[in-house]
Amino acid sequence: MAYRVPRLRLALRRGYATGARPSHLELLGEIHPTDSITNITPTIISKLPLRLHTQLGHPLSSLRARIESHFPDYTHLSSFSPLVTPFKNFDELSFPADHPGRAVTDSYYVNKDLLLRTHTSAHEVDVFRSGQTKWLLTADVYRRDEIDGSHYPVFHQMEGACIFPQDASAMKAVEEHNAQLSAHLDSSNIVIEDIPHITAANPVQPSHDPRHSELVAMNLKLSLNSLLLHLFGGVSGATKEEPLRVRWIEAYFPFTSPSYEVEVFFRGEWLEILGCGVVRQATLDRADVPDKMGWAFGLGLERIAMILNSIPDIRLFWSKDPRFLSQFSADPSKITTFKPYSRYPSCHKDVSFWLSEDTKMHENDLCDLVRDVTGDLVEDVKMIDTFTNPKSGRTSQCYRINYRSMDRSLSNDETNEMHSDVVSRLKDQFGVEIR
After folding, report:
1. What is the distance between the alpha carbons of residues 68 and 346, in angstroms, rounded to a whole number?
2. pLDDT tens track for 369-380
3. What angle do CA 232, 236, 240 make, to 5 degrees?
4. Hey, which of 178, 197, 353, 413 would disulfide with 432, CB 3.0 to 4.6 Å?
5. Domain 345-434 adopts which CATH fold?
6. Long-range contacts of range 265-270, CB-CB < 8 Å, 24 or more positions apart?
7. Residues 419 and 411 sit within 8 Å (Cβ to Cβ)
8. Which CATH superfamily is domain 30-34+41-197+208-326 in?
């Protein structure tokens, strides 16, 4: 159970810096106990209150509003806490027990009973149980990840869902809606490379009437084709001669079947945009709506904003520099192409070390350590060499850390100090022997 006490951020950061795990963590004004699997870091904790998708004029907030405007009769949600139980994040959605997303190398755990949501689907059951049948939910999500221009441990997702009663009258209404959407798309500048709704490799769920599953899958595809036309059609300058091109691909997700991924051909290449599918009946049964069936989709706001706004580095979304933020309008109908205001020089430094027999360090552990020391002042971290001595059996690794600010030039002294801190923390936290 969480309880309130005075702020402990400085103590927490000092504890992590010495390699010691604090006994409690302050998260969103509450204190939670830690345990042996706690791996959330001070840098990640500092992101929890920011909620970029709600900041007026921020490109993520504008994109959220642009998508919501396409579904005006849906309920729009954005206030759920990022703290969820593993049961809600995984088990309620039929994730297998051995799914890699459960691992401490992939997800941020507060303790064994609490983690930061890794996807907006963690709230699906609760929203369905509340009686909502058509909704969009936007939230920040957290995954341990590498450091480069397109990956960040915090990003923002939008989940959309629509469910229907499983009776003849409701399915007739879905069929009529499909006809309306088809007529709209047929008269628009869009070409869709479709695939069969249901196949042996992408099957209908055993409890579903195949005819109903076909109708629901078609409704999903038509609804999302219409959304993609709304998002990309005007920006791409789609015409009858050069229409927007969309293609569908079979996929697998633990919480939907059949499942699909969708790509858009934009500026000369196919780009993956979102994943979706027919909701697992087990999810709806857990939400106490067993008489319903429907579809859901999830998309990453950063990925789409980087495409639409030509934003080259995902770190920029966290910038407070007015040269970045002033380029974007609070009006969701306006799409701004980002204009780089400077390109500051990079400075790369290597760190080589021997791993001890007791060292248990995942690459994501190193990336979290670097982020805690440098914030957003590192552009990427890459392993450039690994070697195992055939005689001693010891393993050596070498990583290249590329220091570069998006907003200013870094001095040599500043870079050297950060790198020295990284090296010191590596020795203290993981017991490596620096080469």
Report:
1. 39
2. 999 999 999 999
3. 100
4. 353
5. Alpha-Beta Plaits (3.30.70)
6. 266/232, 266/236, 266/307, 267/236
7. no
8. Bira Bifunctional Protein; Domain 2 (3.30.930.10)
